[in-house]
Design goal:
Oligomer: single chain
Keywords: Nucleus, rRNA processing
Shape: flat
Radius of gyration: 37 Å
Function: Involved in nucleolar processing of pre-18S ribosomal RNA.
Structural class: mainly alpha
Helix content: 40-55%
Low-confidence stretches: none
Number of strands: 2
Number of helices: 4
Strand content: under 5%
InterPro entries: SSU_processome_Utp11
Subcellular location: Nucleus, Nucleolus
Mean pLDDT: 79
Organism: Tulasnella calospora MUT 4182
Largest sheet: 2 strands, antiparallel
Distance between the termini: 106 Å
Length: about 160
């Protein structure tokens, strides 16, 4: 005789629940156990959430005050934000774009300086420099030489 634990899972089948009797069909679909479990879990999570909110409301300090509260508004307990759908003026947008461009330019220059001048410990290490590194340094040197030439031409004019 084979024990129940040795049976193949293929042999076992799901037990089906009965349908709604004909005389009770007017009441709707018969709720099955799995439907009840989902509904019960949903109910309990909502009830726990409400209990936690009640506990928070009970424990809150009614005398708590911040000066920023003077400038804030609520509508039926919901905080109203003033900055949601306001568009920026063209002047402010231009200033912000100029600041962004300056920041990008500064970061590019800083990255160029960092790549040209590695830290002193690496600078004096007696190791072989890979060919790719030499090629990149040459290209950066050519870019700098072009910049110097254009600046000197502008100074002459």
């Amino acid at each position: 005789m084979v024990s129940s634990s040795a049976k193949s899972p293929v042999q076992t089948r799901e037990h089906r629940e009965r349908g709604q009797p004909l005389e009770r069909q007017k009441l709707g679909i018969l709720e099955k156990k799995k439907d009840y479990v989902v509904r019960a879990k949903n109910y309990h999570t909502k009830r726990l959430r409400v209990e936690r909110l009640k506990e928070k409301a009970k424990d809150r300090n009614k005398d708590e005050f911040y000066y920023a509260m003077n400038n804030q508004k609520t509508d039926r307990g919901v905080h109203i934000s003033y900055r949601e759908n306001q568009s920026l003026t063209t002047e402010i947008a231009k200033v912000l774009k100029a600041q962004d461009a300056n920041y990008i330019r500064t970061m590019k220059r800083a990255n160029l300086k960092v790549s040209l001048f590695p830290p002193a410990a690496k600078r004096f290490a007696l190791t072989r420099i890979p060919h790719q590194r030499i090629a990149s340094l040459k290209s950066q040197l050519m870019i700098l030489a072009d910049l110097v030439r254009t600046n000197s031409k502008m100074d002459e004019e």
